[in-house]
Design brief:
alpha+beta; globular; two-stranded antiparallel ribbon; 78 residues; iron-sulfur; 4 strands; Alpha-Beta Plaits
Length: 78
């Protein structure tokens, strides 16, 4: 399991999650930050600092948010 960055992050530039991640699994994609699901250690540090509340645990994603998990997997070739 991993954390997933969802739609509130699109075009967001704060990037607080980058500094909070202890394993550096977050990268800036084309239009939002993305979490590498293969590297994420499920610590939740990113979720607590996100200023737009865009980060959700994979198991808690709503159906319409699953596209963001797929987007991250594709970006990181997982």
């Amino acid at each position: 399991m991993a954390y997933v960055i969802t739609s509130p992050c699109i075009n967001e530039q704060a990037g607080d999650c980058l500094d909070a991640c202890p394993v550096d699994c977050i990268e800036k994609g084309e239009d939002q930050y993305l979490i590498d699901p293969a590297t994420c250690i499920d610590c939740g540090a990113c979720e607590t600092v996100c200023p737009v509340e865009a980060i959700v645990y994979e198991e808690d994603l709503e159906d319409e948010q699953r596209v963001f998990f797929d987007k991250a997997k594709q970006y990181f070739n997982v």
